[in-house]
Amino acid sequence: MMELKKYTFIILLLTIGFSGVKAQEKADGRTYYDKMKSSLYTLNNAGNFETFNMVSRQLKKIADEEKTKWIPFYHASYAYLMAAFLAKEKYTIEDLVNQAQNMLDKANKLSPNNDEINALQGFIFQGRMINKEGKDVYKWAQKAVKEFDHARFINPNNPRPYYLLGQILYRLPPGFGGNKESACHHFIDAQKKYKSFKPKSEFSPNWGEAANTTMLHKCK
Questions:
Q1: How many folded domains does the chain comprise?
Q2: Domain boundary among 62, 96, 112
Q3: pLDDT one-digit tens code per residue, 70-84
């Protein structure tokens, strides 16, 4: 009888412990969800250096807490990069692009051969072109185009590499491979793909459509 009570007590403790762990996992899941939802809302509505810089640190903190999820690292990388494009100080730009690369390297380790990561890698290479001249511009442009082509090969339906390829072709001087007519064709392709594109999850990458529309207006 004592043995039965002893085993019943042990089973009860294990059940309580297991329930506690599951409750904690559920709470942690909600916390991650709430933080990501709030941060991505800020990121998607950001329009200046201060906001991008602030939300990049928020997303980095989430990514560092989670460690095994590539998506927070990806969005942190994107936020750092957008801050770099809007920064005024040369040393700040370089530091932010380096931060973007660091975050994306971690995302890539968690999710290799990912078209979204390849596309963003090419965008980071565009960031390396800021304040560069001559051969340096051409070098980074080549690297960017290679990443966009890789992303398109992995997933031809992803609109972002088409938009980003169009952007780099539009902005580069003709002597470095720029071609506005070709760029506009890529913006048109991107627009078609944005219309049918569906992100894999609520937090999956889903940016660039508004910027692509702006570039299309410049093509008219």
A1: 2
A2: 112
A3: 999 999 999 999 999
